[in-house]
């Protein structure tokens, strides 16, 4: 990218571009958690089990995850404007399909189409932000991104809880649809092209292998809840997932233009940061899926109450995001992440003793403190990891980071829901709620173990400031040349 183009990018009026990207990303992320509180009514409508119904959330995350590495190729092939308009239009079509879906299968197709559009939005936004903001402002810029990434999940469950209590669940999609259409119209007028096209070759085999690999693992882990861990379908699907995923990774090392650049994992801080991001995302989305099922189907709360329980925590996380961005610009990531993960571990452990008597206040307060902990980890750990990479690897680093987080969230949620179903003393319709809740508690024990592993990893993050990061990046670039 030439200097003059870089200057033009810096002189752009950033506000309209940032606004369009943020609102598009907001709708995309809103949809990850939109169905959290609506899953029980959809289960009743289509007569589904927990393990099948959570597919509506996990398939969205998974397709999102698979789309992210492909987006790196799309960003280098199409102009930013064309890509944004296509992504938002695809998303709008998916939303329409979900709204009119007559069967569970068609609802799933709608979710897949939605996710294909949404999966392009996030990496596109991250890439454009990294291009239009200089390195010393990135902490604050990413804080704004964090704000959107946190407010959307806050509003999702509460909005769906309110809708589901007063209207059919389909209304949710018809609230989202006009918003998506407005964003498309505005983007048509204000979006500028800020990315450079290099027209890389796309490796179709890699896309097939990654889809089969991640998809196989997800299907295996989530089917275990319905069929048991030693069922042939479950074992076969896990085996296919593991084998094709290994083939995918090995193939990436041979390609000159890999879909996911696994060489970014040579930078130890980046690898640790990615692993921590994966664990935190599992803990976040897993809890947001399990708690509403527990609250509505086992503890007798209304959909609106289960949405309201999530809201204060998610709002707190949103408010904290720009603040942690600023703290990060001053002190670096290490202590923020260690404190955040300690809070996450303790509060997850506090969810291991739920019962039919657990109060709404207890659930809301613990969940809020837990989200406060997560807010101290999410953006700092991502930025710290990316700051260790040479500039040319940043888009690949972003893709790797986002892909791994989405995949971890979808597979992690599937595992936690499966643990919940398998560990329940009795999951039948006439089961005593306390027997079902036993499974929820066991799932949170597993989540506590995961958070603890993340906390141990946090001690291996190097202490550094943005100036040292810039020096590290320049050194890495010189070494590569």
TrEMBL record:
Main localization of the protein described in the UniProt heading: membrane
Instruction: Supply one GO CC term from the record.
Output: plasma membrane
Subcellular location(s): the record lists:
Cell membrane
One Pfam family, short name: MFS_1
A single Gene Ontology MF term assigned here is: transmembrane transporter activity
Give the source's domain of life in one word: Bacteria
Q: Which Gene3D superfamilies match?
A: MFS general substrate transporter like domains, Multidrug resistance protein D
Keywords recorded for this protein, A-Z: Cell membrane, Membrane, Transmembrane, Transmembrane helix, Transport
| PROSITE patterns tied to this protein | MFS (PS50850)
In the bilayer, the protein is annotated as: Multi-pass membrane protein
Recorded hits in SUPFAM superfamilies, A to Z, give:
MFS general substrate transporter
NCBIfam families per UniProt: efflux_EmrB (TIGR00711)
Under the heading CDD domains, the entry gives: MFS_LmrB_MDR_like (cd17503)
What is the official name of this protein in its record?
Drug resistance transporter, EmrB/QacA subfamily
Transmembrane parts of this sequence? 12-35, 55-75, 87-109, 115-133, 145-163, 169-190, 202-221, 233-250, 270-295, 307-328, 335-354, 360-386, 407-425, 437-461
Q: Write the signal peptide boundaries.
A: none
Q: Where is the Major facilitator superfamily (MFS) profile domain?
A: 17-466
């Amino acid at each position: 990218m030439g200097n003059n183009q870089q200057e033009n990018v810096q002189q752009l009026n950033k506000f309209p571009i940032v606004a369009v990207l943020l609102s598009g990303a907001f709708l995309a992320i809103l949809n990850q958690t939109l169905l959290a509180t609506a899953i029980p009514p959809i289960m009743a409508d289509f007569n589904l089990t927990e393990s099948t119904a959570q597919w509506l959330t996990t398939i969205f995350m998974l397709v999102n995850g698979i789309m992210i590495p492909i987006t790196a190729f799309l960003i280098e092939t199409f102009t930013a404007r064309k890509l944004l308009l296509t992504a938002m239009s695809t998303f709008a079509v998916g939303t329409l399909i979900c709204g009119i879906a007559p069967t569970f299968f068609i609802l799933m197709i709608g979710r897949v189409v939605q996710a294909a559009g949404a999966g392009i939005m996030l990496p596109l936004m991250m890439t454009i932000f990294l291009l239009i903001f200089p390195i010393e402002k990135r902490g604050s810029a990413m804080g704004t991104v964090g704000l959107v990434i946190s407010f959307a999940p806050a509003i999702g469950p509460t909005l769906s809880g309110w809708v589901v209590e007063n209207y059919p669940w389909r209304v949710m999609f018809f609230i989202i649809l006009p918003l998506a259409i407005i964003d498309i119209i505005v983007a048509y007028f204000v979006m500028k092209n800020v990315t450079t096209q290099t027209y890389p070759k796309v490796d179709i085999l890699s896309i097939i292998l990654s889809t089969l690999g991640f998809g196989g693992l997800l299907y295996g882990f989530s089917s275990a809840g319905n069929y048991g861990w030693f069922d042939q379908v479950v074992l076969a699907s896990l085996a296919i997932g593991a084998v094709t995923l290994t083939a995918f990774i090995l193939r990436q090392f041979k390609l000159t233009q890999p879909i996911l650049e696994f060489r970014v994992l040579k930078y130890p801080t980046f690898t640790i940061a990615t692993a921590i991001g994966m664990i935190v995302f599992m803990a976040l989305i897993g809890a947001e899926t399990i708690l509403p099922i527990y609250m509505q189907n086992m503890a007798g709360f209304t959909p609106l109450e289960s949405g309201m329980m999530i809201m204060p925590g998610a709002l707190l996380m949103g408010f904290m995001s720009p603040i942690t961005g600023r703290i990060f610009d001053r002190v670096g990531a290490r202590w923020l992440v260690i404190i955040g993960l300690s809070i996450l571990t303790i509060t997850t452990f506090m969810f291991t003793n739920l019962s039919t008597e657990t109060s709404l206040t207890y659930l809301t307060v613990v969940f809020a403190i837990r989200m406060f902990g997560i807010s101290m980890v999410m953006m700092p750990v991502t930025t710290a990891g990316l700051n260790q990479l040479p500039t040319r690897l940043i888009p690949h680093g972003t893709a790797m980071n986002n892909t791994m987080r989405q995949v971890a969230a979808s597979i992690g949620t599937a595992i936690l829901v499966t643990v919940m179903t398998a560990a329940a003393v009795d999951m039948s319709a006439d089961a005593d709620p306390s027997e079902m809740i036993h499974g929820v508690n066991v799932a949170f024990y597993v989540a506590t173990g995961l958070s603890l592993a993340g906390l141990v990893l946090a001690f291996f993050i190097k202490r550094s400031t943005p100036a040292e990061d810039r020096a590290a990046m320049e050194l890495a670039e010189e070494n590569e040349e």
